[in-house]
């Protein structure tokens, strides 16, 4: 394993036995993944793609049928490797009879912290996720969002070098999601590596250095965001005024929106955009706005996975939820 | 932290957490108060049997301690590991530097500690209750025993607790392998068969004790022999009858029973660990 790698998987394969006759189902197939130390890595994929399965392998909850998963060069199945990991599962569910403080004390103890450290860091962690006021409330009374925040707190109480978060923004309101983004950025600033899975693409675009796209158990793309998203201009939106009708006909009737003397039209492709600019100018029209759009992560995700949105009017966030 | 220290730390942390879970479960207090009520009401039944008051009180007291301990072991133990897997609480524990063997042992010791504490509390109440009866002359046996609780009775209580050492291990094993309902059924079955161990062995011989022995007879005999060696011999832990009549057992026999309980439980816990190790959570 090269130095500086927080996570490396080589040919990782996971199988599940399902049904009465224990039929084998492949959860992950030949997964080769590398995450550098100190980066924020977004692990993307629709539901059922194998994101949680990968994470379970990394934290030693399930064993691969083939291949290996390494954490800082150590076999992920060993307790030594896991001592460097903080993990928050999807929809975390904790012991309901404990309070927030007691839960963090329990996990701190399992991570080998002394009593004094557990008290100090427990209070710090609760404060960091905004749960100080609920510290002595039993977890049975926590809302979903509060449990999600507590999941983050327990994941970082021992200040791990690697933090693995499974769908950390799931079920949170916009403020909560923004808080979690800031929490992840803070972690990186303190030197941790963050690996998180999600299907909310805007979160990935906002904070990730590198991404991996998983589909049906296979890693279909990985790298920097710029390498996943096509650099070509896919669409240009032009707003113009005083454009003669014959020029508009050339631009394509259906794409045109007219508002008095002002028209808005969309042009697919880079070459056609230049031609449209020239046509409007030559016809005596005035260009008010000319916005070129590159492919966004959502479009790249659709292109890579071959998935199609079920409704054309969906916003990026809704679109991601619809995929699932 | 070295490996040995980490092992102890993790086992104690998980056990303490399991103990706390039990203590905060209201059903435990229902069982406990009901057991105390049964022990306290034993005197009423004792009045029916003239001159045998204290024996009836002891009989009912020891039986209640055993019965309610068994009920707690089965009801709490049946879902002990299964619930952790079903609710995914095990994920965040296993994701720490915690081995699955430590998890099993911790959960086991947590429940065992709970059952032992409850039984010990019942035993304390039982002992004080007897002392009060003897002191007040209500039991009518103070001259014979000098007001002290007989030593065989103390040993009987210790063996009742050791019976739970075995039973809780079985509950943990079954809850690692199957659903809470089936786990409760299997643990109860093991408890019942365990108290019939001597009969099972004798019956396995009786099946062959006739003139013409068929293949079926041999198969039944073999099945019963295997069953005899698989189920825990809980009869060896049951010295209530002797204790009530103030008959003691030898130190050697007492030590052998304790050793048997520990060895049987260790084997069952090892099996539970092997099941959990292979299991994809």
Summarize the structure in words:
Chain A has 324 residues and is α/β, with parallel strands linked by helices. Chain A folds into two domains: 224 residues, Rossmann fold (3-Layer(aba) Sandwich), CATH 3.40.50; 62 residues, Alpha-Beta Plaits, CATH 3.30.70. In chain A, 35% of the residues lie in helices and 30% in strands. Chain A has a six-stranded mixed beta sheet, with helices on both faces. Chain A has a four-stranded antiparallel beta sheet with strand order 2-1-4-5. The C terminus of chain A is likely disordered. The longest helix of chain B has 36 residues. Chain B has two domains: 228 residues, no CATH class; 38 residues, no CATH class. Chain B is mainly α. Chain B contains 13 helices and no strands. Chains A and B meet through helix 2, strand 6 and helix 3 of A and helix 1 and helix 5 of B.
Main attributes?
heterodimer; A: 324 residues; alpha/beta; Rossmann fold; Alpha-Beta Plaits; 2 domains; six-stranded mixed sheet; four-stranded antiparallel sheet; 12 helices; 35% helix; 30% strand; elongated; disordered C terminus; B: 281 residues; mainly alpha; 13 helices
Topology:
The complex is a heterodimer of chains A (324) and B (281).
Chain A: E1 5-18, E2 23-36, E3 40-44, H1 51-58, E4 66-71, E5 74-75, H2 79-82, E6 85-88, H3 100-110, H4 115-128, H5 144-156, E7 162-166, H6 174-189, E8 193-198, H7 201-207, E9 210-215, E10 218-224, H8 225-228, E11 233-241, H9 245-251, E12 256-259, E13 262-268, H10 270-282, E14 286-294, H11 297-305, H12 316-323
Parallel strand pairs in A: 3-8, 3-9, 6-7, 7-8
Antiparallel strand pairs in A: 1-2, 1-4, 4-5, 9-10, 11-13, 11-14, 12-13
Helix pairs in contact in A: 3-4, 4-5
Chain B: H1 3-23, H2 26-48, H3 53-77, H4 80-86, H5 89-94, H6 100-135, H7 142-145, H8 151-177, H9 180-194, H10 197-206, H11 215-230, H12 240-244, H13 251-278
């Amino acid at each position: 394993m090269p130095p500086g790698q927080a996570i490396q998987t080589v040919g990782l394969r996971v199988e599940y036995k399902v049904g009465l006759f224990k039929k084998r189902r492949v959860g992950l197939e030949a997964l080769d993944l590398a995450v550098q130390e100190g980066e924020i890595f977004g692990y993307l994929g629709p539901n059922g793609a194998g994101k949680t399965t990968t994470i379970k392998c990394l934290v030693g909850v399930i064993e691969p049928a083939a291949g290996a998963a390494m954490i800082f060069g150590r076999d992920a199945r060993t307790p030594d490797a896991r001592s460097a990991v903080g993990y928050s599962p999807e929809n975390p569910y904790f012991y309901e009879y404990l309070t927030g403080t007691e839960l963090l004390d329990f996990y701190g103890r399992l991570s080998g912290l002394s009593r004094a450290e557990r008290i100090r860091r427990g209070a710090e962690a609760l404060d960091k996720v905004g749960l100080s006021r609920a510290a002595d409330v039993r977890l049975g009374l926590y809302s979903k969002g509060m449990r999600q925040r507590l999941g983050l707190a327990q994941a970082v109480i021992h200040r791990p070098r690697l933090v693995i978060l499974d769908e950390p923004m799931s079920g949170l309101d916009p403020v909560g999601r923004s808080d979690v983004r800031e929490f992840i950025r803070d972690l990186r600033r303190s030197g941790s590596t963050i690996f998180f899975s999600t299907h909310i693409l805007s979160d990935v675009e906002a904070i990730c250095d590198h991404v991996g796209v998983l589909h049906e158990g296979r890693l279909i793309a990985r790298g920097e965001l710029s390498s996943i998203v096509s650099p070509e201009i896919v669409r240009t939106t032009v707003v113009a005024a005083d454009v003669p009708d014959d020029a508009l006909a050339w631009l394509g009737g259906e794409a045109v929106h007219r508002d008095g003397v002002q028209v808005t039209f969309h042009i697919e492709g880079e070459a056609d955009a230049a031609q449209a600019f020239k046509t409007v100018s030559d016809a005596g029209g005035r260009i008010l706005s000319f916005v070129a759009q590159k492919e966004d992560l959502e479009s790249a995700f659709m292109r890579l996975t071959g998935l199609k949105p079920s409704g054309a009017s969906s916003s990026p966030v809704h679109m991601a939820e619809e995929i699932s | 932290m070295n490996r040995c220290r980490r092992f102890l730390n993790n086992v104690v942390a998980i056990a303490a957490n399991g103990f706390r879970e039990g203590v905060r479960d209201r059903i435990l207090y229902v069982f406990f108060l009901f057991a105390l009520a049964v022990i306290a009401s034993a005197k009423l039944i004792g009045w029916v049997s003239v001159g045998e008051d204290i024996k009836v009180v002891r009989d009912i007291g020891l039986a209640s301690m055993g019965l309610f301990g068994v009920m707690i072991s089965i009801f709490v133990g049946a879902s002990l590991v299964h619930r952790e897997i079903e609710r995914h609480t095990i994920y965040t524990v296993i994701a720490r530097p915690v081995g699955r063997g430590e998890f099993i042992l911790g959960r086991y010791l947590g429940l065992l500690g709970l059952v032992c504490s409850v039984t010990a509390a019942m035993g304390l109440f039982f002992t004080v209750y007897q002392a009060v009866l003897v002191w007040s002359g209500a039991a009518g046996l103070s001259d014979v025993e000098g007001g002290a609780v007989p030593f065989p009775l103390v040993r009987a209580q210790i063996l009742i607790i050791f019976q739970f050492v075995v039973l809780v291990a079985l509950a943990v094993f079954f809850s690692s392998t199957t659903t809470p309902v089936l786990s409760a059924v299997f643990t109860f079955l093991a408890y019942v068969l365990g108290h019939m161990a001597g009969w099972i062995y004798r019956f396995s011989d009786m099946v062959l004790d006739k003139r013409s022995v068929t293949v079926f007879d041999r198969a039944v005999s073999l099945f019963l022999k295997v069953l005899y060696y698989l189920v825990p011999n809980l009869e060896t832990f049951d010295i209530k009858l002797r204790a009530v009549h103030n008959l003691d057992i030898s130190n050697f026999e007492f030590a052998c029973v304790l050793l048997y309980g520990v060895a049987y439980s260790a084997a069952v816990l090892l099996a539970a660990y092997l099941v959990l190790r292979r299991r994809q959570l």
